[in-house]
Write a structure and sequence with these properties.
Length: 230
């Protein structure tokens, strides 16, 4: 479903050109749960920006669900992001003065869905992450773990085929991290592909595959042995 071929990404600063990705080849099939790991500066964010359709200035091919999306315009990519992808970030990225429900409804406001449909789908998504009782709270009135669950509900509300998560447990204590990984595992079992950046080996053990970056290249790509299932 995700296939990238010979992806090269350079950053130009004046006359200096730096190759942040040096020819990445990777296939992620439907239903996988993959961790992207690697030291700081190894190219993980650069790669995730491309996978997440936030960057179209690179060399190589990106095929998503059978369509070559390598040369699409910003607008075309925005459409794909909204339809196919859900994003979860380390810092949750919720709007603090809005309620839990309003935060989850936001992607559907952008997609132009009618109010009733938005409410229905938001409540379903919040139920899937176990937060149905907190819907009227403002998002700054709930805990970090609960905020991340709201962010996951927001990410799944348009039924994306892939969830892209960037250090989703980076701001959470161990107990909340476990809860979040349990939710990702359940969504994955229900058919959603998950690609997650993490620098925590303990967290990567909950996924099925670990792809390690170093200096803009894939160093190793392995199935997780002794995977922990919550
Ligand atoms: P990671 O997410 O693994 O920490 P990044 O993808 O952020 O790595 O960065 C990879 C390399 O590209 C680093 O050496 C970084 O300094 C460089 N880089 C990232 N973004 C830019 C940019 N906008 N301009 C110039 N260099 C950049």
């Amino acid at each position: 479903m995700i296939e990238v071929k010979s992806i090269v990404k350079s950053y130009k600063t004046g006359s200096f050109e730096f190759k942040a990705l040096k020819g990445i080849n990777l296939k992620v099939e439907n239903g996988e749960f993959t961790s992207i790991m690697g030291p700081s500066g190894s190219g993980k964010s650069t790669f995730m920006n491309i996978l997440g359709c936030l960057d179209n200035e690179y060399e190589g091919k990106y095929i998503l669900n059978g369509n070559d999306i390598s040369n699409l315009s910003d607008n075309e990519l925005a459409y794909i992001r909204n339809k196919e992808l859900g994003f979860v970030f380390q810092a949750f990225n919720l709007l603090p003065r809005m309620t839990v429900l309003e935060n989850v409804e936001l992607p559907m406001v952008y997609a132009g869905l009618p109010f009733k449909e938005r409410r229905k789908r938001s409540l379903e998504a919040l139920e899937r992450v176990g937060l149905k009782e907190r819907v009227k709270h403002k998002s700054n009135e709930i805990s970090g773990g609960q905020r991340q669950r709201v962010a996951i509900a927001r990410a799944i509300v348009n039924n994306p085929s892939v969830i892209m998560a960037d250090e989703p447990t980076g701001n959470l204590d161990t107990k909340s991290s476990m809860e979040i990984m349990k939710i990702f595992q359940r969504l994955n079992e229900e058919g959603t592909t998950v690609v997650m950046v993490t620098h925590e080996p303990e967290i990567a053990k909950y996924t099925k595959r670990i792809v390690r970056f170093r200096d803009g290249e894939i160093l190793t790509d392995e199935l997780v042995k002794g995977r922990i299932k919550l």
